[in-house]
Amino acid sequence: MDLISQATTLRLICFAGILLVMALWEVAAPRRPLTRSKATRWANNLGLTLFNTVLARLLLPTAAVGVALVATEQGWGLLNRLTLPDWAVGLLAIGGLDLVVYSQHRLFHRVPLFWRFHRMHHTDLDLDVTSGARFHPLEILLSLLIKMAAVALLGAPAWSVVLFEIILNGTAMFNHANVRLNSRVDRLLRLLVVTPDMHRVHHSVIHRETDSNFGFNFPWWDRLFGTYRAQPEAGHLAMTIGLPNYRDRKWLQLPWMLLVPFVRADH
Q1: Backbone phi and psi for residue 194, each to the nearest 5 degrees, phi listed first
Q2: Quick one: which of 218, 21, 185 has its CA closest to 102?
Q3: What is the mean pLDDT of residues 106-113?
Q4: Secondary structure of 139-157 in the HEC alphabet?
Q5: 56-60, 133-137, 250-254 — which is least confidently predicted?
Q6: Which of 97, 43, 88 lies closest to 68, judged by CA?
Q7: What is the DSSP string of the chain?
């Protein structure tokens, strides 16, 4: 089994394991009561995840790991110019890729064309572990192309790309999960990782809160670039999640989810 196949298998195992752990946590200690059917949301969100996985595998089979292997072989990228241990280069690559994801996220909120695709992620009326993979297929493909370009420019080692993708998938499921954390634990964790309470603010129906807390993995970029917001104005239990003009239940169904970029909803 080559490295790309091994990476795919490892990512799948990690995804399934983290999904199971977070789903059980949501049952044991939910943060908020759900406003819509969990079964309906799960079926459509996970159906979309499966569709995205197959599509990405068909169109970009080697994706970022394949680019990393070529970059290392050809000596491409900034990090291949440095005389540092492999572990140090890998850590710098992970940090650099995370900054790219943060910047891309802000860009997708700022540029109307990109927002058309990204807003589907925000049409979920509740948040749980499946929301972390609820992205439009065209956004997934565009994100993959951006990531591939970033890997080539950085010269990221293949192992660091695999690790980054596992971390990204895992933290996306964690910080979208409907789980309750002790407030003191939450404050401590926010020094290292984006927590569910921190990211939930980003899914507020209030626009100025939606345009905050863009980080997925690490919380530092929001603090550094002034986009950090500690809490929602209405509090976590009373806040409204989603977009003001996508309140109809139909937008939770897969066919309508795929139409979000092309249809402007009035309610």
Answers
A1: -75, 125
A2: 218
A3: 97
A4: HHHHHHHHHHHHHHHHCCC
A5: 56-60
A6: 97
A7: --HHHHHHHHHHHHHHHHHHHHHHHHHHSBSS--SS-HHHHHHHHHHHHHHHHHHHHHHSSSHHHHHHHHHHHHT-SGGGGS---HHHHHHHHHHHHHHHHHHHHHHHHHSHHHHHHHHHHHT-SS--GGGGG---HHHHHHHHHHHHHHHHHHT--HHHHHHHHHHHHHHHHHHHS-B---HHHHHHHTTTS--HHHHHGGGBSSHHHHTS---SS-SHHHHHTT----S-TT-TTTPPBS-TT--SGGGGSHHHHHHGGG-----
Q: How far apart are the first and last CA of the chain?
A: 50
Predicted local distance difference test score (pLDDT) of residue 267? 54
| Token pair of 27 as six digits | 């049952």
- Single-letter code of the amino acid located at 37: S
Backbone angles phi, psi at 179, to 5 degrees: -125, 150
Return d(Cα 213, Cα 230) in angstroms, integer. Answer: 9
Express each pLDDT in 177-224 by its tens digit: 999 999 999 999 999 999 999 999 999 999 999 999 999 899 999 999
The single-letter code of the amino acid at 31 is R
Q: Residue 4's pLDDT band (boundaries 50, 70, 90)?
A: confident
2: which residues sit within 8 A by CB, 6+ positions away? Answer: none
What is the mean predicted confidence (pLDDT) over 22-49?
Answer: 95
The per-residue pLDDT for 1 is 46
What size, in residues, is the chain? 267
> Can you tell me the distance from the alpha carbon of 70 to that of 238, in angstroms, rounded to the nearest whole number?
50
In degrees rounded to 5, what are phi and psi of residue 259? -90, -10
